[in-house]
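INFO batch 0412 | record 1 of 1 | parsing
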Amino acid sequence: MKEIASAEFDAVVSEAGREWVIMSGLERSIFNKISRHKALKDWDISIYRGVVTGYNEAFIIDEETKERLIKEDKKSADLIKPLLRGRDIDKYIYHNNGLYLINTHNGIKEKNIPPINIKDYPAIKKHLDKYYKQLEKRQDKGATPYNLRNCAYLEEFDKIKIAWQRITSENKFVFSDKGQYILDSMAFISGFNSQELAYYMLCILNSNLILYWMKNIVHEYGSTGFRLSNQYVEVMPIPEADSKTKNNITKIVDQIITLKKQEKDTTPLEKNIDEIVYSLYGLSDEEVKVVEGK
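INFO prediction complete | emitting tokens
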């Protein structure tokens, strides 16, 4: 495959929203090799923002409150969903925070799904009533102060996902299980036709090469790091791979996730992933040294 022309390369960078700086020949070669691959948005997936509650104190509860609400009314369990926040994630894994979202959603009009009627959930209504003044004043609300704002992609939370924190110091992408909700400090990718594809993309997104891409493309955000908004993630170039490579990567990612949950060192496995990724993008040994700062 031939390298893309300078004009084509500049168009890719422009689409990400950042003017380019002068590069060395090796650097331009690296970005030509990265940018010739299909953008993530063209992989038949979708990117969404996490849930906006308008008043977290009311809608985010801990384990003790969850158990109490279910004890008072078993139907409460239907609306209480495990919740993931940006501060809880690391590369590949998230740390259990013991927090849940009260999902008094506002329905999906296009699919004839009605808003939650709070009267059907007396224990949850009693809990939210403690915050009624604040709920009533908030802008992000649905049909009633008890309902969350409209969310047309509500059903996407019931699928496997890849999530990330939008303000971050590095590329920390994590696999999110079905039924886990994502808070609005984060964004997520869904629409994967298999867990293998999700794991494949997860390894690419967490790779050292994508971090290099981020450092050169994504706008810095003060001393915190990067504002990794959807406009950047959706244009990240993702290479195709054969089924053997995807299967191999899936096994390695599964090992990494298992070991990280056990708080064990995964450096050798992540190094292995980086080597596979360099190969998928066709980088030379000299170009790898540039990426790794050697």
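INFO post-check: The radius of gyration is 21 Å.
INFO record closed
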